[in-house]
Design brief:
The protein folds into 2 domains: about 110 residues, Hemagglutinin Ectodomain, Chain B (Alpha-Beta Complex); about 55 residues, Nucleotide Exchange Factor Grpe, Chain A, domain 2 (Roll), CATH 2.30.22.10. β4 and β5 form a beta hairpin. α1 packs antiparallel against α2. The strands form 2 sheets. Strands 1-4-5 form a 3-stranded antiparallel β-sheet. The protein has a 3-stranded mixed β-sheet with strand order 2-6-3, with no helix packed on it. It is α+β, with helices and mostly antiparallel strands and about 210 residues long. It starts with a helix and ends with a strand. The protein is elongated. It is built from 2 helices and 6 strands; from the N terminus they run ααββββββ.
Length: about 210
């Protein structure tokens, strides 16, 4: 009887230990699940909230950077436009100044040439007045050399005589002071040149004084 009781107690004790072991196993297997379940809302919500905040911060930073870049680009374009305008104004000023300087030089040169032309006229009159018998004299040859040298220098300065005798009368180059009859030339053609005219760089310095066939 006592032996049976001891065996019964042992069986009951074994059952209790087995039940406790099973219960401990179930609790240990359920506990991570509960912890996981408890952590899931946090894992699902907190990163999302952090990510949204970071996105907003990044978007705000990008907006400021884009705005600053646009302002800088606009400023650069404004400065480039200003530089272009100033360069254009300077170029126009330079061209205008060069044109004025050229005009002043041309005016000054023409004024000097006008004063030299009477000297040329006197040389030509002096050469024409030399008698035929004295044209080979040292004096006549000296005058001829000086005259040729003077005309060469004038030609280098682009001073040229205006063609006259045998040319059609042109009021832009010729000044008709008289009319003559001629069997050699047709009406309107220059038959005589009373005073030479000259041009300087395609500009008339002095008109030719001529006689035109009537």
């Amino acid at each position: 009887m006592k032996l049976m009781n001891d065996e019964l107690k042992k069986d009951i004790q074994d059952d209790l230990e087995t039940e406790e072991t099973v219960q401990d196993t179930q609790e240990s297997s359920e506990q991570p699940k509960e912890a996981q379940d408890t952590a899931e809302p946090i894992a699902g919500e907190e990163p999302e909230a952090v990510e949204t905040k970071a996105d907003k911060k990044a978007a705000k930073k990008k907006f400021k950077a884009d705005k600053k870049q646009d302002a800088l680009k606009e400023r650069i374009e404004e400065l480039e436009d200003r530089v272009k305008r100033q360069m254009a104004e300077f170029d126009n000023f330079r061209k205008r100044t060069d044109k004025e300087k050229t005009a002043m030089f041309e005016t000054g040169a023409k004024s000097v040439i006008e004063k030299i032309l009477p000297v040329v006229d006197n040389f030509e009159r002096g050469l024409a007045a030399i008698p035929e018998g004295e044209k080979g004299s040292p004096f006549a040859e000296g005058m001829e050399m000086i005259y040729k040298q003077l005309m060469t220098e004038l030609e280098k300065m682009e001073v040229k005589p205006i063609p006259a005798i045998g040319e059609e009368f042109n009021p832009d180059f010729h000044n008709a002071v008289m009319q003559v009859e001629s069997e050699e030339y047709d009406t309107g053609v220059i038959a005589q040149e009373l005073q030479k005219g000259y041009t300087y760089r395609d500009s008339v310095v002095r008109h030719s004084m001529v006689a035109v066939v009537s």
